[in-house]
Amino acid sequence: MHQTNAKSPSQRQLRVGEEIRHVLADIFERGEVRDPGLHGVSVTVTEVRVSPDLKKATAFVLPLGGTVDQARDVVGVLTRARPFLRRRLAKAVRLRHVPELEFSVDDSFDQAGRIDRLLREARATGPGRDASTDEPGDDHGA
Fold it and tell me: What's the pTM?
């Protein structure tokens, strides 16, 4: 999850974010955004984070099986399509005010992969590898 502040989101923020995520996912699945930049691209909405006042919503997206450059291109296309997407959201969700949409590349999977790779490398080459085979009480210095 993309948590940037110390305060946890409220239940309402979580509920609204999840509802927006589902609506956006349905729009993308049906191919309603008709832009050449999305031709043949399956967009995944991994999370939608809503501001405490419910006025802004950031959707984290990834092209399925795409590269980071493709993800940036997708964000550009979706940014251009914001007015259309906001109108579709207004029809689909029951909110007094539909939040302003922002799109961001979801890099959490890349970060998790880097952390996993670093941990595997540390286990394979680090000093902990030798220590794990030693018995407690072994005297290495004498």
Answer: 0.72
